[in-house]
Amino acid sequence: MLPLVLIIVPTRSRPHNVAPLVESFRDTGAFDDGAELCFVVDRDDPTFDDYSEAIGFMSTAHRGVTWLDASHHEQLVPKLNKAAFYLMLTREPRAIGFMGDDHRPRTVGWAAAYRETLAEAGTGIVSCPDGHRPDDLPTQWAMTTDIIRALDGRMVPAPVEHLYCDDAIRLLAKEAGCYTWRADLLIDHLNPYAGQRAPTDEQYERVNSQAQYRTDRRAYRAWKRDGGLAADVAAVTARMTGERA
Fold first, then answer.
1. Could you give the CA distance from residue 18 to residue 125 in angstroms, rounded to a whole number?
2. Roughly what angle, to the nearest 10 degrees, separates helices 18-27 and 48-61?
3. Which H, E and C letters describe 6-22, residue by residue?
4. How far is the C-alpha of 58 from the C-alpha of 81, rounded, in Å?
5. pLDDT at 2 > cutoff 70
6. Given pLDDT bands bounded at 50, 70 and 90, which one contains residue 238?
7. Domains delineated in the chain
């Protein structure tokens, strides 16, 4: 049985991105192919009511659109980890993914391809090009939930706040031997720091500040250097070995 792919989208102050993202899922057949989309919105977001209206409309128009409200603002990674853990326990999906509110799937059938890739892997992480980067860094990804269980409820292994989470995902997956890069697919990343493909705003400027880079760079390097990476790879590898035994 192919796994359901439940895509989490932490978002703040960009309710205008709800409809285009949902429409890109619809246009690429993702809802029909077993993907669901879950926005995570802060209750203290000044645009919370606008999100409620936009997501409410889209959830009525398209099955597979849901949302969670976070009690207060947190950085991307803690918010993503908490949402993934909650949805893993309450929904029990076989796979959970991440996209930003500025991602747009372009390839028809991408969700089916993700599901098939993860079903074949058994335990794994899958990503694809984002229309900007020339390498295989996963600016969005999907993973089997047994990896989250192996990491004690974490979707992102390194204790970063926002930046370097994609580096951590790729490094963990490659070290554990469970990374699949689908070069035949495209999920655009319309980010002002991805070739000026979108206008900047306060959120982009805050999370891409030099202070944020320093904070997350230290945390990422410490995770690699001080045993965090090795422990996480061992946990994921043990899960894979146990399933294949």
1. 25
2. 20
3. EEEEEECCCHHHHHHHH
4. 25
5. no
6. very high
7. 5-244 (3.90.550.10)
